[in-house]
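Exercise: predict the structure of this protein bound to NAP.
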Amino acid sequence: MKSIVPFVAKLEKSEIDKWVKVLKKKLKGARIVKFSDLKKSEYSKVKVAVVANPNPSEVEKLVNLKWVQSIWVGVEKLVQTFKGSGVKIVRLVDPEMNRTMAEAVLSWVLYLHRDMYSYRVQQGKKAWIELDYIKPSKKVVSFIGLGELGKAAAKKLIENGFKVCGWSGSKKNIKKVKSFTGHFGLKKMLGQTDILVSLIPLTDKTKYLLNYKTLSFLKKGACIVNFARGAIINEKDLVKHLNSGNIKHAVLDVFEQEPLPKTSILWKHKKVTILPHISANTDFESASDIVAKNLRLFKLKKKIPKSVDLQRGY
Ligand code: NAP
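Solution:
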């Protein structure tokens, strides 16, 4: 008998339809349905669901749910939804996503490294000023978070000649990456950092990890790239450091409220580059292959892929 796998998501209808269609094609042994097409009598038959920002009141109805497969990498909302429920969360781990993020990190690090934002401002003033060039081998790019995405991006930067450091929960042994851990490790790393890249998950421990105090540990004139989650950085504290000149420029792709409200002072801040959460979107082709493979494995071998540690929150 075909197992029932609902797609539970708060997404545009067209996107839900696209996912349901491709999963139906790739998973002949399962009945893939939109949550809204699930009959009440079928709720208790569901053991696994595919999710994207699901409505908690919908997943609650699936009383025998064992695990959910997310089509996204970040899990902070899912952790809140499923904490204490016994339901396992499997997040998307996709080499294509790692590649895309590494490409985005390289692009925006080069934007900062080659002063593209400053030349844009100079053009506005018709100013012909040559800024100093410093070789990548003399610049330190540091990561907070050296997981799937951080590691791939760190390697990309090493290939491009940068010095690379990384801060994580556990010590890492990655070729040419100086690894730091703990509060003092963070302070030490930030003190030598020219460009800081945030690729750390949002958890109770990492919320406002970058605040007035920790940002003041950064080398004077350092730049910041936030590709993780908005609440990793305390926005007001960041603005204070930008205004004082301690931080030279920030590239922000993620915000506590998205889309960024029109009233936000960040939009017009001369030292901020705003991106609309585009650094690495889920690649539909590769992600649907991975989701289908994980669901197949569960159907055939009852094996649930590696799941999120709900205690630590990532
Ligand atoms: P991951 O593989 O789970 O890696 C997380 C890294 O952060 C690990 O190195 C981990 O340390 C470290 N970490 C977590 N909590 C820590 C703490 N309290 N102190 C020190 N280090 C800590 O995650 P990922 O796949 O690289 O993804 C990272 C984040 O990127 C996601 O959570 C998501 O928010 C964000 N993201 C953004 C976009 C976008 O488009 N902007 C796209 C995808 C993902 P250990 O190695 O010791 O565990």
